[in-house]
Amino acid sequence: MRKKEFAARVWSKLMAFEKQQGLLKQGDSVLAAVSGGPDSVCLAHYLTQQSRRKSFKLNLLHIHHGLRGKAADADAAFVRKLGDGLGVNVRVIEVAVRERAQRRGKGLEDAARELRYGALEDCARKLGANKVATGHQLDDQAETVLLQLVRGSRLETLAGMAPSRALGDALLIRPLLPLSRADVRAYLEVHSLKHRVDRTNADPRFTRNWLRRHVLPLLEKGNPKIRERLSALAAEVRLLTARRP
Q1: pLDDT for 93-105, tens place per residue?
Q2: Dist CA 165 CA 29 (whole Å)
Q3: Which of 135, 229, 232 is nearest to 176 (CA)?
Q4: What is the CB neighbour count within 10 angstroms for residue 219?
Q5: 24/131 Cα distance (integer angstroms)
Q6: Minimal CA–CA distance to 172: which of 52, 79, 61, 81?
Q7: Per residue in 129-156, is it b (16+ CB within 10 Å) or e — as a string?
Q8: Residue 78: which of 192, 197, 185 has the closest Cα?
Q9: What is the residue-wise DSSP string for 172-227?
């Protein structure tokens, strides 16, 4: 399949999922989390196109975690430049992840997640945004479900990440959930979009990275569609648990 045809298929996935879930509407005010990585760049570009089609307001938020020195500074500069190119306003918020982790006895990943969602909620409230968008995609969903299976969690946790959920007074939406990591890369390539690489995402000391790099490739040998299957399992669990009395 040629690149443009592949990109058209990706766009069709996004549009069908958005319509099915009712994620974006005319008159919305959307705040998108943009790290500068491939998924978030794809999200920013897609939402920019849709904001023009559906006449909704869009702002981008970059959260500087203060963990990677000059690389993190370069990420923030990249997102500002991306926003300029897209014609979208960018805000940058700095959070102190290491201090939070030490103060509360948490791991860096957990502390970063707490601060990230807190910053998104706070910024959405200040901007009057009714939607907050993140760039989670299908592979992220599969990794989340697998992580819960490894931890031996309850059935409810296998529901993974919902397409939308409440975040303070806003609705958190995940428009890229139907896309695989390969879909995202194709989208970026066709639209000639650059992105940043966070090398901590390859650090096997973090359980999710270890699952991504070592466990999922082994499972794919038994089922090449394991990522799609894990994502489908999450949807099935959400439906099952929603029906419980």
Answers
A1: 999 988 988 888 8
A2: 16
A3: 135
A4: 16
A5: 8
A6: 61
A7: bbbbbbbbbbbbbbbbbbbbeeeeeeee
A8: 197
A9: EE-TTTT--HHHHHHHHHHTT------GGGG-TTSHHHHIIIIIHHHHHHH-TTHH
In whole angstroms, what is the distance from residue 83 CA to residue 91 CA?
Answer: 9
DSSP 130: S
Strands 89-94 and 131-133: unpaired
Q: Name the token pair of 214.
A: 């070592």
Provide the 3-class DSSP secondary structure of residue 113. helix
pLDDT tens for residues 7-61? 889 999 999 999 999 999 999 999 999 999 999 999 999 999 999 999 999 999 9
Integer angstrom CA distances of residue 167 from 36, 95, 162, 216? 22, 19, 12, 30
| Chain position carrying tokens 């390859």 | 202
Token pair for residue 155?
A: 């059935």
d(CA 222, CA 216): 10
Q: Which residue has the tokens 């995202």?
A: 184
Alpha carbon distance 20, 28 (integer Å): 17
